[in-house]
Amino acid sequence: MIEPLPILRSCPLLAGLPEEALHELAPLARGQHYKGDEVIYLPGSMQSQLSIVAEGRVRICSSNARGREATLAILDTGTWFGDTVFSPGAPRVFGATAHDDCTVLDLPGTALRSLLQRYPQGYPVALDLVSRRLWSVMSILQDDVLRGTEARIGRRLLYLAQMHNASEDKGAASFRLTRELIANMMGMTRQGVHRVLKNIEAQGLVEFAYGRVTVPDPARLQAYIETLD
Amino acid sequence: MIEPLPILRSCPLLAGLPEEALHELAPLARGQHYKGDEVIYLPGSMQSQLSIVAEGRVRICSSNARGREATLAILDTGTWFGDTVFSPGAPRVFGATAHDDCTVLDLPGTALRSLLQRYPQGYPVALDLVSRRLWSVMSILQDDVLRGTEARIGRRLLYLAQMHNASEDKGAASFRLTRELIANMMGMTRQGVHRVLKNIEAQGLVEFAYGRVTVPDPARLQAYIETLD
DNA sequence: ATCAGACTGTCAACTCCTTTACACTTGGCA
DNA sequence: TGCCAAGTGTAAAGGAGTTGACAGTCTGAT
């Protein structure tokens, strides 16, 4: 099994809590392994947990009756998820799926909420981070309206690259990702994404391999995107 | 001028604060009037305030260099906005514009944050509400991927109708809104929206007049949207 | 080492939305 | 009252992305 404490310490959402609070929380944490593409939970289920990605990566997604899937986010190791932790009683709105083989650390929502009440210095950090997530989703929405397909796809790749090497120094970022999944994130088809990607690839801004995407120089990609519109 | 206290009392974001806290806050509130389509603030400006719509309605929006505008939300009387209140130091991400003639009540961010520290019982409500905004924006993103144009436009109108008569009983909802603005919200053109709207209108689910939209029976519109997939 | 399954490249037909253009209606204001 | 700006209806031409179909390529598991 995994050691909960270091993971709790590194979770940004809990950064406002003192060490003693994390010690209280640690024994309640439950580690869970998932294989790639295994469902972690479905939308609508009545749970209220905070989950932390301890290893691997997790997709936030949902799908409609006709089998089309929407990938709303891909969360890297170290990030947290669990949309309803702060809204007790509400059913889950989105689903979560293992993107790679991964380990997830679950914290009961009730325990977290009562802990925050006893250590209120943890609240401002949480509010700040949830707010920032709200902006970034709104920014995506904004891009859908204001920018062309190429800029939108580029930005999404850039975002993934930045998130992926948040810990390491800024340099080339490489991660597992199929074109099908990019399409699911963009609300397009694999073929539609293909044409745009060929363009960006021809300029050396991204490189593709079987099931893998590499951004050699994130800064250069960013500069290019800004010229587009 | 307007009386701040009743407005603070009715603001859901402040619902967790005791009466005495609101009394502390009231003298710091500053009311401000805006004419229709007047800019309240632009993205990038360095302010940190919580704003409450005391009268009229406010658009959250931004626009690109070529003059295209994206309307991200239309906020009704009673709702709050100010994306960076909980992230001190961050510049505003989106702009705000008066939708009708309106009155906005501004609360300094520093004052609000220090007040919450002294009355931490206010935090859970704030976290809950910001979380819920996050879901609803993510739901829009999801719809863009999973559902067709007609379902998306219908849902947006329904959402506006529900928000508009949140206080009154559920019945017909009527509000000022041009087709151009609907298009700006959907990331489409006026003409593109027109065709879809003709369809929905023919079934009596919505009615249009010059600069005005009416949803006679929100429940029926909702039922229709769900048949679309 | 090899084979099945997953991933990718490409193409043509089609659909939907945009662009461009113009005529018409509505409502407020001088 | 009459004018003008804002809002609306409509239609043809064009483009961008989807659908569907198929062949090629890579990887991991047996």
TrEMBL record, chains A, B:
The UniProt record lists the keyword Transferase: no
Q: Where is the Cyclic nucleotide-binding domain?
A: 13-116
Provide this UniProt record's keywords sorted from A to Z: DNA-binding, Transcription, Transcription regulation
What superkingdom heads the lineage?
Answer: Bacteria
Task: Outline the extent of the HTH crp-type domain.
Answer: 147-219
Pfam short name (any one): cNMP_binding
**PROSITE patterns on file:** CNMP_BINDING_3, HTH_CRP_2
InterPro entries per record = cNMP-bd_dom (IPR000595), cNMP-bd_dom_sf (IPR018490), Env_Response_Regulators (IPR050397), HTH_CRP (IPR012318), RmlC-like_jellyroll (IPR014710), WH-like_DNA-bd_sf (IPR036388), WH_DNA-bd_sf (IPR036390)
Keyword field contains Transferase: no
Annotated protein name in UniProt? cAMP-activated global transcriptional regulator CRP
State the organism named in the record. Microbulbifer aestuariivivens
Taxonomic path: Bacteria, Pseudomonadati, Pseudomonadota, Gammaproteobacteria, Cellvibrionales
Name the gene for this chain.
Answer: crp
